[in-house]
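Re: that chain you flagged

S.,

Sorry for the slow reply, it's been a week of failed gels. I finally had a moment to sit down with the sequence you sent. For the record, here it is as I used it:
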Amino acid sequence: MIRGIIVGHGDFARTMVETAEKIVGKQPLIDIISNQGLSCEALNQKIKAVLDTNEKYENIIFIDLPGGSCSISCFRILKDIPDLHIICGINLVILIEFFMLRDKYLARELVPILIEKGRKNIIQLQVK
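Prediction finished late last night. Pasting the structure tokens below so you have them in one place:
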């Protein structure tokens, strides 16, 4: 099973996980990290500390927003751990799909599936 690390601004990560779990049930191996009150360096240290636990699992880090402090911190970590899997711009569809598929794929196989699923579910509702 792949461990998920959800990183976001304020309460975004916690709320995203809680919402997804209301749909698919409580999930193991999920870490939630908020940048609230943290400098980029402190956020880097917090993410690294989580990565250093349970090293037997593959990890996918999900970030709320490309270009924000969370993605900057993760990009710095990616320089040291180039095989780390990081998805920026998480949405509820991606997280639910991750929960349902993470025990069936390797991380490198699952990442493109999740990105495609997320993109396909951004639509405009219209009346014709």
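What I noticed first: The CA atoms of residues 93 and 116 lie 10 Å apart.

Talk soon,
D.
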